[in-house]
Amino acid sequence: MKTFTTFAAVGALAASVSATPALTPQKRADVTPITIKGNAFFKGNERFYIRGVDYQPGGSSEAKDPIADTAGCKRDVAKFKELGLNTIRVYTVDNSKDHDECMTELANAGIYLALDVNSPKYSLRRDKPGKSYNKAYLQSVFATIDAFANYPNTLLFFSGNEVINDDETSSCAPYIKAVDRDMRSYINARKYRKIPVGYSAADVEENRVEMAQYMNCGPDGARSDFYAFNDYAWCDPDKTSDDWEKKAKTFSNYSIPLFLSEYGCNKNKREFNAVKGLYGDSMTKAYSGGLVYEYTEEGSKYGLVELDGDNVKTLDDFDALKKALAATPAPTGDGGYNAQGTKSECPKKSKHWNVDMDDDTLPAMPKGLDEFFKNGAGKGKGLVGGSQDSGEDSPPTGPAASGAITSGAVSNGGSGSAAASQSSPAAAASVRVPEFAASPFVAGFVVLVSSFVGAALL
């Protein structure tokens, strides 16, 4: 719904504190990086279900970065914990800012980030998809990946949100898929951890299935890692939803993870009965949870809380969601996930699916992307400037996976040498969960380092 169309001196430090008395380290929550098996997310060997909210204080009208707002982040993490969340979605970040403190706060609470890489001035436009798909736009996208790739609690990246909202705008699908391809290629080229990339779609009934198929068809180099959509069909006080049941059957053989990037109908008093359904046996074969829209009240009556400076006022919806989640723990076992699914067939052009390109054709990568693949994206432009008119009206096309880089990402939760060079000195290390031995040497080391980087390591 929120949419814009689119330690160099470590050895010396350790030696200087070798006689410091031992202290018991504070244990952090487990933020094991999330991986994909079949059509499900996994945290180690346990299936991972997204239980979260959409988080963008200020709404889509204000381009602000809540992950760079340390005070606001600390304020809200306490409420996320109260709700029992494991994920938040953020729609806009400033890729020129530092995010270590907030990402550490989230990690300490066991909370993952689902992040949109677009911003109001750097995104695909549904009315000008070709012109807005260009090198300047992708530089911003890649700089956002650079800013968040080394955090182990970065769960996934959204390549777009609700770019398609009717039959006519389905013509944007190849550009969305091209951005998806380019993001995965960049992650592989820079040897980052294999962070999933996928699209957040509007729930357009006429082409819902076609878009899901399209993002999961064709050569592997052009297929999404996951698919999500924004679904408000289940409204309280209903205890069940025929619409959701039908969708679960439709997607029962879908071979990549599927989840709801927004849900929480507000036509009536919200009881969040959909929570029980979403994490029930009939849904878990196809769905991996979802994100409730939305944390803050922004005038549309979807908010769980109202913000007044540093004060947070919880609303009735907050209490209702808290109750629903507490009464519906995450499923145990594998939920009957599809471990060996096959890719989808590409949809054919129809009155509801306005895509002229062949199944194995996509917009060609803009010239100059190989520079980013080799050297990194460089400094992010943040929330200033813009890229939406920097390209050609009709950019060239080519084989869908042409130029795609399909290997190189680290699959075990580590980060490659290129990745390490892209982040600030504390970025990856500050939110990792170290296993400290209870020895004077190590405990003293922790104390001294904490004096340099503050609460980020404690």
TrEMBL record:
In the UniProt record, the signal sequence range is 1-19
GO cellular component: a single term: side of membrane
Alphabetically sorted, this entry's keywords are:
Glycoprotein, GPI-anchor, Lipoprotein, Membrane, Signal, Transferase
Output the Gene Ontology terms for molecular function.
1,3-beta-glucanosyltransferase activity
Region listing for Disordered, in residue ranges: 329-352, 380-421
Report the record's Gene Ontology biological process terms.
fungal-type cell wall (1->3)-beta-D-glucan biosynthetic process; fungal-type cell wall organization
Q: What is its EC number?
A: 2.4.1.-
Q: Which Pfam families does the record associate with it?
A: Glyco_hydro_72 (PF03198)
- Which top EC class is named for this enzyme in its record? transferase
Q: Which Gene3D superfamilies match?
A: Glycosidases
What does the UniProt entry say about where the protein is found?
A: Cell membrane
Question: How does the protein associate with the membrane?
Answer: Lipid-anchor; GPI-anchor
Q: Describe its function.
A: Splits internally a 1,3-beta-glucan molecule and transfers the newly generated reducing end (the donor) to the non-reducing end of another 1,3-beta-glucan molecule (the acceptor) forming a 1,3-beta linkage, resulting in the elongation of 1,3-beta-glucan chains in the cell wall.
Q: Which family does the record claim for this protein?
A: Belongs to the glycosyl hydrolase 72 family.
* PANTHER family to which the protein is assigned, alphabetical: 1,3-BETA-GLUCANOSYLTRANSFERASE GAS1, 1,3-BETA-GLUCANOSYLTRANSFERASE GAS5
Q: What name does the UniProt record give this protein?
A: 1,3-beta-glucanosyltransferase
